[in-house]
User: Fold this.
Amino acid sequence: MSRPVLTAERSAADQSRIAGALGARGIGEGDRVVLSVPGSPAYVSTVLGATRAGIVPVPLDPRLTEHERDAILADVEPALIIDDVDQLTGLLTGPEAPLAPWPRCRPMHFTSGTTGRPKGVWSGLLDEDDARSLVMEERDLWGFHAGDLNLVISPVYHSAPLRFATGTLLAGGSVAVLGRFDAQDFIEAVHDLRPTSMFCVPAHLQRLFAHLDESGARLDASSLRLVAHAGAPCPEPVRRRAHAQFGVETVWEFYGSTEGQITACPAGTWIEHPGTVGPARPGRSVSVDHDGLLWCSVPPWGTFTYWRDEEKTAAAWRETPDGPAFTVGDLGRVEDALVFLDSRRSDLIITGGVNVYPAEVEAALEDVPGLQEIAVFARPDDHWGQRVCAAYVGDVDEQSLRERADARLAPPKRPKTYERVDLLPRTATGKVRRTELP
Assistant:
């Protein structure tokens, strides 16, 4: 199978023509361009060509319904909507135009909207020093270099895979984009291309390992120097198998959000301190307020606003001794400079006046033999206000789950109902859609 590889040299030439094509349409600094097409190498170059011209790309999931997309378009008021692959490739024929040395802004990603109306995360236009610092911060952390080949296996219109791909190209490396994740296709791509880095979500690892077990296929992952995972909690059995498959020195986890990056955790740190998502990234600090909310201070190039929403922006920021800090509503703690997550505030279940955090319940049950995945969620209850429920995937009987819950959880935390499902509903970035559970 032909697997096109986008080199930094080719991408730089494409970026110049893309910037020229946009400029020829009268699109300039601060204008928004919506990208609503599947991921591809041309997509990555378009994002870089736009941002290096001060134009703001707005990546959208092309699977959005008309109702979902129209609400975002009304908010963004784009100068151009690219919703056809031919439109995207057509930009590659534009006249050459000069580019800034660094992207002048971050792409404006929209949050998933699982907890309310989608919000655009806007970095503002950066001066040259901050623009350079934004790129170099990622390069220093992940070690992007000219010899890298980043294999994109997640939807490239999401922030993490796009960040890894653009960071690699800006460091002089190359990128290959898989159209969709298929375990066997992934194995063959690793064999053919010998990539050095990739970002994934735990669901990718689960599907890969299931395929290896069922098919007897083998994966030679020796070319990979970096396997970074994030986007959802990683079950301990999956995590430990990833350590064995790729190497402890290769696997990293990071904690962040569409809004910003917060921690980075090499596998060795997690092994020594199970449950941590690592220390704050360099140049950041994490603190906890009296409600248990995590706040992350950031350098100037890490600040953001919610597009045209002053109220939500104000609620997300506060001043700290280390500078401006933001929160995305996650609950946790900091111990010996390491961050531990408890749950998202939006996931909080209050049953009979007792706070129950789904992450804690899931962690208590995830190693029951035969269980593949479990997600805990709330349903209304006339007596208790909310009832703790669980949906699970795997060849495990309900009694085993109940016995483990009895052994590890106080009565209010034990799921009252269990539902076996074939798959947990997830967003494209791997987060469980709890509102869609049975």
